[in-house]
């Protein structure tokens, strides 16, 4: 069972700025948390981050036939990208949308998520722990064969 964890623009800045919104932990802490959780639940995981929309599209396409699930934090592209929505829809790999903060409780422009329509679930506002929750959801889904 192999999960692809994708992070969008500026998430590599975690822990450097805006700790009141995103906490004090760094992107490297996030990668460690994900890899540790993967080992705990017995799945393989690969974590990637890009500031470029097209590269995220390429990585989503790459998941087809290679990964069993995607955990996707599209960051700002959540609120703008039809390309990411189309990619998730096209590959048909179960995808969980994750947000560290709860975008629905922030500025109005963050209340729209384009990718959500193609995702099997959304975990938001649970900090970095939300990534582990998303991984659990995908594992459960795969075990139940749904
Ligand atoms: O809460 C989330 O995970 C978001 O996806 C984060 C995005 C934001 O645009 C979404 O509305 C919600 C922003 C990621 C930028 O992360 C930073 C972290 C530290 C310092 C600056 C930016």
Describe the structure.
This protein has 146 residues and is α/β, with parallel strands linked by helices. It has one domain (2-143): 3-Layer(aba) Sandwich (Rossmann fold), CATH 3.40.50. The chain contains five helices and five strands, in the order E-H-H-E-H-E-H-E-E-H. A five-stranded parallel sheet has the order 2-1-3-4-5, with helices on both faces. Helix 3 (53-62) packs parallel to helix 4 (82-91). The longest helix is centred in the first third of the chain and has 15 residues, at 27-41. The chain is globular. The mean pLDDT is 97. Residues 10-11, 13-14, 16-18, 22, 73, 75-76, 78, 99-101, 103, 110 line the site of ligand CA2.
What order do the strands of the largest sheet run in, or round the barrel if closed? 2-1-3-4-5
* CATH architecture classification name: 3-Layer(aba) Sandwich
The hetero compounds bound to this protein are: ligand CA2
Helix/strand/pairing category = alpha/beta
Beta-strand percent range: 15-25%
If you average the pLDDT, what whole number results? Answer: 97
Number of DSSP helical runs = 5
Assign a percent range to the helix content: 25-40%
SSE order: EHHEHEHEEH
Gap between N and C termini: 14 Å
Stated plainly, the CATH topology is called Rossmann fold
> What Rg do the Cα atoms give?
14 Å
Question: Would you state the CATH class?
Answer: Alpha Beta
Q: Report low-confidence residues grouped into runs of 5 or more.
A: none
How many β-strands, per DSSP? 5
The domain tally reads 1
* Shape estimate: globular
Which sheet architecture does the biggest sheet show? 5 strands, parallel
Q: What is the CATH superfamily label?
A: Dehydroquinase, class II
């Amino acid at each position: 069972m192999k999960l692809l964890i994708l992070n969008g623009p500026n998430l590599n800045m975690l822990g450097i700025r805006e700790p009141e919104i995103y906490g004090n932990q760094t992107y490297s802490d996030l990668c460690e948390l994900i890899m540790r959780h993967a080992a705990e639940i017995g799945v393989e995981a690969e974590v990637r981050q890009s500031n470029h929309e097209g590269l995220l599209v390429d990585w989503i396409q790459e998941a087809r036939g290679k990964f069993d699930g995607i955990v996707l934090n599209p960051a700002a592209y959540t609120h703008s990208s039809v390309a990411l929505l189309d990619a998730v829809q096209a590959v048909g790999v179960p995808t969980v949308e994750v947000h560290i903060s709860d975008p629905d409780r922030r500025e109005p422009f963050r209340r729209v998520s384009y990718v959500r329509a193609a995702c099997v679930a959304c975990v938001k506002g649970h900090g970095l722990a939300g990534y582990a929750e998303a991984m659990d959801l995908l594992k459960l889904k795969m075990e139940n064969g749904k």
